[in-house]
Amino acid sequence: MKTSLIVDDSRMIRNYLRSSLQALGFEVREAVNGCEAVIRCEESMPDLILLDWHMPVMDGLEFIRLLREGGGALQPKVVFCTTESDIAHIRIALEAGADEYVMKPFDRETLHMKLQLVGAA
Amino acid sequence: MQISKTSRRILADLLKSETGQSFHDSRQWRIGTALSGLSREHGIADLDRLIATLSTSRRSPLAQTLVEALLNNETYFFRDRAMFELLAKQVLPRLAEARATSRTLNIWSAGCSTGQESLSLALLFAEQAPRWEGWTISILGTDVSAGMIEAARNACYTPFQIQRGLAVGQMIKWFDETPRGWRAQERLRKMVRFEQHNLLDALPRPTSFDVVLCRNVLLYFDDVTRRQAFDRLASTLAPDGWLMLGAGETSIGHTERITPDRALRGLYRHTSFVDARRQTGPARNAAGRI
């Protein structure tokens, strides 16, 4: 079974993403910020990470930079899922190592298409 | 929101006369939701009263608005991506050889809605720019809805629309962020033009198209109208051209002029072309392609 990690401080968003990923056959774990996501990745590196930008303690950008620099050879696909929808943020995310970028609000079909584009679904 | 049988008949007649589309049972439930916003906008709580005004003014702006509200305009970039890969990898290379002399390709997206399909086609060519250098690529997008054509011509999409089917890399490379949304760049727009057109009418400028995409449109027609539409599509398709239908659609049982391409599932050819090839054997070009 493909494994995934949802990193978002909103329980509502996590629930929505969880049901979307489970419907696509993913095993799902959750983290409420980047710091907790680092711990989850150390426990077991997932195949896919859905990552929010703005979170307390450690934001998504800091997390992905740490992941890409020190996460080892088994790198997961990372899809940013964020309210930031301007090109400056998108470029920063891609330069930091994001594989795809989803702007909130989005629907399940969009998420599915994005996961197909990165070869995760 | 419920409407009377009389209102339903008026709407069905209007939709049929303006677009050729029929009300199947599966679409009945959409009527209330599609029209409730209009009802509020015009300050008429009773939908039957709103629809009754149509019997005296079928050509009114309200009638047009009602028709547009009933159309399904669902679309997104690279819808059914496998079909676009088939175009890019199988059809376009063959056309590149078949049209090597004229170096011109005409493509028609019939029922283009807000233009994402036409722009996806333009993107296919733009992403293979060296191969198509010196070619004239002309993509026509048509739709029965004036509102959809206006939106398609603007080629400007909300964040929700732009990311449906488009990779983020494609989005930032081929679209510009503007105050009104993400707008297709000139290098895409110059390949595409949009015109309001009813599929059942003759095209304003008759053209022979090398590829015609008519996806998820014919399913809204009744049998007789669908046959007429197939005739229209067949008349405009080049003798060796390709027709692409929606995933749930087929030519079988609806026309004798068009036949499924046995090698490329989802694509259709002129029956006369397929028959001729069967009799003479497939003509192979220098690359060995049929």
Automatic annotation (TrEMBL), chain A:
InterPro entries: CheY-like_superfamily (IPR011006), Sig_transdc_resp-reg_receiver (IPR001789), ST_Response_Regulator (IPR052048). Gene3D superfamilies: 3.40.50.2300. One of its GO terms (biological process) is phosphorelay signal transduction system. The modification 4-aspartylphosphate is found at D52. PROSITE patterns: RESPONSE_REGULATORY. Residues 3-119 form the Response regulatory domain. This is Two-component system, chemotaxis family, response regulator CheY. It comes from Novosphingobium mathurense.
From TrEMBL, chain B:
GO terms for molecular function: S-adenosylmethionine-dependent methyltransferase activity. Residues 1-250 form the CheR-type methyltransferase domain. Keywords: Methyltransferase, Transferase. GO terms for biological process: methylation. InterPro entries: Bact_Chemotaxis_MeTrfase, CheR_C, CheR_MeTrfase, SAM-dependent_MTases_sf. It holds the Pfam family CheR. The keyword Methyltransferase applies. This is Chemotaxis protein methyltransferase CheR. It comes from Novosphingobium mathurense.
